[in-house]
Design a protein that fits this description.
Mean pLDDT: 87
Order of helices and strands: EEEHEEEHHH
Distance between the termini: 46 Å
Number of strands: 6
Number of helices: 4
Strand order of the largest sheet: 3-2-1-6-5-4
């Protein structure tokens, strides 16, 4: 797989494992709007973190060191890195909805509520380990337009009230 900007154009969610995370550490598992999934290893020289940031705007400016304070699903049982000055920061327009054992599930903000409802009843580790498979199996991506439409409708209502 060639590392180019257009590879990430349609990415709506990703799971990233911090170095040392349980599961697929050093891997970014990306989901696009058609339900296709691909993996990139940010520890490889050819696809290093710095090279990926140049191609994938969704991670540019992100920091990963434990759960984001606004994560919906979180076990908080393992925080990696040991650098207390680094706090997980997700790029504006994206939202972390799940953290488990050094792994983060991050999605575009307009789909966050849909993913939260979709994963309701699952544990964090289930979302991290089986979430992408569940998304494909249950054809979640077919509902993206409705989810985004509802998000923008709500956002407009809030804006009008203020």
């Amino acid at each position: 797989m060639k590392l180019e900007k257009d590879l990430f154009d349609d990415v709506i969610a990703y799971i990233i494992g911090e170095p040392g995370a349980m599961g697929a550490n050093g891997i970014i598992e990306c989901l696009n709007s058609t339900g296709e999934v691909f993996h990139i290893c940010y520890l490889d020289e050819e696809t290093s973190w710095e090279k990926i940031k140049k191609c994938f705007d969704g991670i540019n400016g992100c920091k990963f060191n434990g759960p984001d304070r606004k994560s919906f699903f979180s076990t908080n049982i393992l925080v990696l890195g040991g650098d207390y000055d680094i706090v997980t920061t997700i790029k504006e327009g994206w939202r972390e909805i799940c953290f488990d054992c050094g792994n983060h599930f991050v999605c575009k903000e307009e789909y966050a509520h849909g993913f939260i409802e979709f994963f309701m009843g699952m544990e964090g580790y289930q979302i991290i380990c089986d979430g992408m498979e569940k998304i494909k199996k249950e054809k979640f991506c077919e509902k993206l337009n409705d989810i985004a439409e509802e998000y923008y409708k709500q956002k407009k209502l809030v804006k009008e009230k203020n």
